[in-house]
Each structure stands twice: as C-alpha cells, then as structure tokens.
C-alpha cells in the first residue's frame, strides 16, 4: 500500500493504518482461534443453521458469481452437510467462463440455483450515472443489488442465514477512498437522480427500513463462513479445479467483464488506484504470499494490451457510448462519495450502524 490511498498514515515503524487495523482484526475471533477452536466454532454455527433450518427446503442462502471465494463457499457448505440455495445476480456482464463455472459447480454439488436477471436498460442507466458522477466506486450498483437480492431471497424462503464469500484472509485491506457507500441507498439514488435518464422501477435495493426489517425483525444473519476455516485462496482454487472442473479467470473479481475493465483500466487510469495493491497486501498479512512475491506481481501489466482493446470496445458498445463520449467521461475531474448526498452524513445512520455492529448481526 502507498499514498495512492489519500487517507493512508504510517507510524514510526513504517506500518500503515491498514496493517494496524488488520492486526486488530486478526487478533479477534474467529481469526485468532487455533485450528481446534475454529473447528468447534464452525461446528456450533453449522449445528445452529441445521437446527433453525429444520422442515425448510433450504437452511442457508449463498451468493455465487463464478469466482473463487463464492465457489469455495458453495463447496464448503455441501461438505458441512448444509442445504444451501445458490443465488446469482445476472447484471449483463457475466463472462462465459463465470457462467460455465457456476453451472458445473452447482450441478456437481447438487445445489439449486436462483438467478435474478436485472433489467438491463435500468441497470445500464445506473452504471452510466456512476461513471458520470466520476467517483471511483462504479461497482456499487452491482454490489448493492447483490446484497439486496440475497436478503430478499432469504426472507422469501424464511431462511435465517446468508453465508458470504467475504473473508479477511484476502480482503483485510480496502481503502475507503477507493470505494465507499455500498449499503447507502440515498447515495446511490442521489447519483442516479442527478445523472440518470430513466426511473429505477425494478432495481433491487435496500432502504434503511429494509435493512432494519431484515436484520432486527426477520433476524437474518450474515456469516463470513471462510473466516472459520483455514482459507488459503490458492488451495481453494486447486480443490475447485481438481474436484469441480472449475477454471480460473485470471485475477480476483475478473469473472465479470465490467469489473475486469473497471478495476484493470478505469481505476488506475483515471484515479491512480490499483486494487491489486490492496488484494496482495491482504494476502501478505494472512501469510499467503511474501512481500517480495507481491512486489514482483505488481510489476506485471495491470491489463494485458491484447485484451484491453477488445474489452474496451465491448464495454463502450454495451453501455451505448461512443469512444468520444467515453473519453469525455474519463476526462471528468475525479469526485468522491462525500461529494454527493448520503445517509452516512446523517446522525441517524451513524446511530443505526452503531447498534447494528453492537448487536453482532454480522459474524
């Protein structure tokens, strides 16, 4: 990590605030537990899920993207004897490889799939709004919709648990300045109101009331299940390849064509943000790669030139832009989350998040 994160701070040892925060997380449960204690904690959670899921068609909900983390969650849930329903958001940007990975994986595991196909014209208008807003978080329209759909499907099937692929092992570092506001519907809707051209009639979203109902009335728990096992990404990829006929897609989150282009081209070109630094730093902290290996990896081209032109043409055409219009968007002055209206600026949101974290809903 370096000063491309404008909020980074280094202490007298040369340790940045991200490392210090990660140290604190790694020293808390369940990450600080020894293997036997982790196994016992995981068993307790699995037993609870099975007990709450008795007489229900499914006892947990999992999201699947075709990527390594979510695919390994699917693999793990079946190994633990759970009965998951897999949920996938088709936002129009799935690569052929991600679709194939999902189909092969779920068929081999015998897991049912619910696919929510988003209204493309609405979603395109929202993505274009974020690009025109000139913030470094144009992935938020997808991320927010995924979260909303997972909660909605859990409520529909009266399931109490969502098992997520988010994990500290590979995601302990992610600067707020690089992406922020994933849960904030006021932020999302304010950007669309300013830059969008059509109404969002069917876009899956979470209002503050929805968030309260799902978490405190329906009491749906969101569990980062990979934090309860010794999750090593390379080991997970090897298992998925050998046992599930799964194929790797290159880099973290590159199972989506838009994500690949946004993280590989737009972020570093316009904002100077290279998300590989955060991903590799997280893996250094969890002992999955050495700093020397990470420095060697970061020297590689962020986007192979033979792929860039093809992907750029595809993304620009799919968004209905001309090359000139895209270049005009790229030339806009960079903005941040704080330049637009949001719930986070309000006292009631801060208080709500305080009680949410205090309640321990997110495990």
Structure in words:
The chain is of the alpha/beta class and 363 residues long. The chain has a single domain, classed as Rossmann fold. 53% of the residues lie in helices and 7% in strands. It contains 16 helices and 5 strands. Strands 3-2-1-4-5 form a 5-stranded parallel sheet, with helices on both faces. Strand 1, helix 3 and strand 2 (84-90) form a beta-alpha-beta unit. The protein is globular and about 55 Å long. The protein starts with 16 loop residues before the first helix and ends with a helix. The mean pLDDT is 92.
Keywords:
7% strand; 5-stranded parallel sheet; alpha/beta; Rossmann fold; 16 helices; 363 residues; single chain; 5 strands
Summing up helix and strand content along with how strands pair, one would put the structural category as alpha/beta
At the first level of CATH, what is the class?
Alpha Beta
Shape: globular
Q: Termini distance?
A: 27 Å
The CATH homologous superfamily is called: HUPs
Portion of residues in helices? Answer: 40-55%
Mean pLDDT: 92
Q: What portion of residues belong to β-strands?
A: 5-15%
Can you tell me the number of structural domains? 1
Number of strands: 5
Which radius of gyration do the C-alpha atoms yield?
20 Å
> Which parts are unreliable, with pLDDT below 50 for 5 consecutive residues or more?
none
């Amino acid at each position: 990590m370096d000063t491309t994160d404008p909020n980074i701070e280094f202490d007298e040892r040369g340790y940045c605030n991200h490392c210090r925060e990660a140290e604190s997380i790694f020293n808390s449960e369940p990450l600080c537990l020894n293997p036997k204690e982790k196994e016992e904690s995981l068993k307790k959670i699995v037993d609870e899920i099975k007990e709450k899921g008795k007489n229900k068609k499914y006892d947990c909900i999992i999201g699947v993207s075709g990527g390594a983390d979510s695919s390994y969650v699917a693999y793990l849930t079946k190994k633990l004897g759970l009965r998951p329903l897999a949920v996938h958001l088709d936002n129009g940007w799935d690569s052929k490889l991600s679709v194939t990975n999902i189909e092969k994986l779920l068929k081999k595991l015998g897991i049912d799939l619910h696919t929510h196909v988003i209204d493309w014209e609405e979603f395109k208008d929202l993505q274009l709004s974020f690009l025109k807003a000139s913030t470094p978080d144009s992935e938020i329209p997808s991320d927010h919709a995924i979260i909303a759909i997972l909660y909605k499907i859990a409520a529909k099937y009266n399931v109490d648990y969502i098992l997520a692929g988010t994990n500290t092992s590979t995601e302990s570092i992610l600067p707020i300045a690089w992406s922020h506001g994933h849960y904030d519907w006021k932020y999302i809707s304010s950007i669309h109101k300013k830059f969008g051209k059509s109404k969002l009639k069917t876009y899956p979203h979470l209002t503050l009331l929805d968030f309260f109902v799902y978490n405190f009335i329906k009491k749906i728990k969101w569990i980062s299940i990979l934090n309860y096992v010794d999750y090593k990404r390379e080991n997970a990829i090897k298992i998925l390849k050998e046992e599930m006929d799964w194929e790797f897609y290159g880099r973290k989150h590159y199972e989506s064509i838009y994500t690949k282009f946004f993280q590989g081209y737009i972020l570093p070109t316009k904002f100077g943000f290279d998300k590989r630094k955060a991903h590799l730093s997280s893996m250094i902290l969890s002992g999955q790669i050495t700093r020397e290996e990470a420095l060697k990896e970061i020297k590689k081209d962020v986007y192979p030139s033979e792929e860039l032109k093809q992907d750029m043409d595809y993304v620009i055409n799919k968004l209905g832009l001309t090359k000139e219009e895209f270049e005009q968007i790229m030339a806009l002055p960079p903005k941040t989350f704080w330049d637009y209206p949001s719930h986070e600026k309000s006292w009631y949101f801060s208080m709500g998040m305080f009680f949410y974290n205090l309640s321990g809903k997110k495990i």
